[in-house]
Specification:
Blueprint lengths: L7 E4 L2 E5 L4 E3 L16 E8 L4 E8 L4 E7 L1
Antiparallel strand pairs: 1-2, 2-4, 3-4, 4-5, 5-6
């Protein structure tokens, strides 16, 4: 995170850099119900790996880390 906005991540054994403007996702977009309250939120962004491959990721914050909910080609 840079200034609370995703900038890069490590996922599926690869390093990814965010390559567009991330969009904040709110609870209403998640298919899974919210457990335990606390305001589930996440981000949708395109990220590009070191080989030039790009995906769009939906990620959300858990109590201890981040979870990739979905990756789109």
């Amino acid at each position: 995170m840079v200034d609370d906005i995703p900038a890069r991540m490590f996922y599926a054994g690869r390093r990814w850099r965010v390559s567009d403007m991330p969009t904040r996702l709110r609870e209403s977009v998640w298919a899974a119900p919210l457990h335990g309250g606390g305001g589930l939120y996440g981000w949708r962004f395109q990220a590009t790996d070191e080989d030039g491959g790009s995906f769009v990721f939906d990620v959300f914050r858990t109590e201890s880390d981040w979870h990739v909910h979905r990756a789109y080609t």
